[in-house]
Amino acid sequence: MTDKSPTPAWDQPATLIDLDGTTPLIATIRDCVRHFAMFKPAAKADARILLTAPVARAGRKTRTWVLNPDEIDALAYQLAVEQHDD
Length: 86
Hints:
alpha+beta; 4 strands; 36% helix
């Protein structure tokens, strides 16, 4: 896990939601992050990922069930790096 963002398992089930009320995407973390990466900036600001298992957050004593846009962006970058290395 990095100091800036939580790192859930890529194959963990999750739900990508949009605060505007569009249809959620129920898939794996990997698929949710890939989908998020294609969003326009305004849509990214309204997106969240709901997890099926909580992850630790750096600097906090509690775990979270929701990933915010900045955390999803960090995962998208991490996924891009991992795919580039393959």
